[in-house]
Every structure is written in C-alpha cells, then in structure tokens.
Amino acid sequence: MRTTKLGVVAMTALLASADVAWSQTPPTTPPATQPRPQQRGRGGIRVMTLTSTAFTDGGQIPAKYAQTGRDVSPPLAWSGAPDSTLSFVLLVHDADQAIGDGTDDLLHWMVWSIPGTATSLPEGIPQGPQTANGLRQISATGPNYRGPAAPSTGPAHHYVFELFALDANINIAAVGASPPATRAAVMAAIATHVRGKGVLVGLYRRTAP
Description:
Blueprint: H1 5-24, E1 46-47, E2 49-51, E3 76-79, E4 87-99, E5 104-115, E6 120-121, E7 136-138, E8 157-166, H2 179-190, E9 194-204
Parallel strand pairs: 1-9
Antiparallel strand pairs: 2-3, 3-6, 4-5, 4-8, 5-7, 8-9
C-alpha cells in the first residue's frame, strides 16, 4: 500500500493535535493513590506536673511509704490542670508485677472523687472506702493505700503514679465488687473524659536482710 504525500501531512497533524491535548489534560492520579484527608480528634490531652516531696521522679521510694515501713501514702501535688477539670482520679500500680493472664498489673492505690479544685493529696490518707472529705479508694488488698513491696532478690520495681484530670464527676462505688473489677469500672467511666494527665514514677525494692 502506497502512502501519498497528502496522507503523511494529515497523519502528522493528527499526532501533533494529540500531543497538545495530552499536555493540556494530564492523566489524573488513580483514586487509590490519592492522599486521604487527615482526621482530627477532639483535641490534645494536657500534660500536667505531678510531684512528691517524699521522692523525685525516677527516685527511690522511702521505706516509710512501703509495706515494710508504716504503709503510709505519700504526699502528692500537681499543677497544670485544664480549666474544664471537675474531678481527678489517681492510679498507682506496679508496672513490673503482672497478674492474671499477664495483661494487667498489681493495683497499689486508686483514688477517685478528688475535687477539681484540689492541687494535692496530703500524706497518710486514712483507710476506708470513702474518707470524710468524700474521696473513694481501693487497692488490691482493700480500701486503703498498699505500699511497695518488691523483693530484694530482684531489680527494683517501677511504681507508676498516674493522675487524670476529668471534665466530669464519676460515680463508681468503692465497695460491692472486686478491686480489679472496680478498677476496670473506674477506667471505663473516665475513658472519654480525660483532659489532662500527670505521671510520677518511683522505684522500690526491699533491703536485703
């Protein structure tokens, strides 16, 4: 088949017009590779400062506040709570002491119904499921502070003090259920109300005899 000069000219013009159309309308990115819009949450949780005059963050917890001493709850103070705070919850647990199936750890103290205007807890909170000023508390062994008791034969355990600032008041009874169940109920109740958090870690192990 012979190609005429006129046919060559027409073919060249057709290719040129296709090139122009391609440059003016580039191919779109397939939907699967297009970036998705970022999701925004309800806002960040404020980092608070939690301290104790009994020990420094990462320092040794004195025997006075351990089971080998007088089992006295340590003094705690905090700052930086959001203006929306209505109450606080304090959780103290041994991060190195697994219990149950290994997904939980030992509860040494949980205090809730702490007023949102509070900035501290004094040393030596008295025992009882509810104190005179309305605080509710539990530990693995009852309605009281349970001091550290890591054995002297191993490394020091990390006792984590976590303070949660809430934009609500929670009404969970301190009696009527096991300590693990009560702890789970309190944590479930605060799940959507945490607006600030402070953490303090103390180390402890018994002195070798």
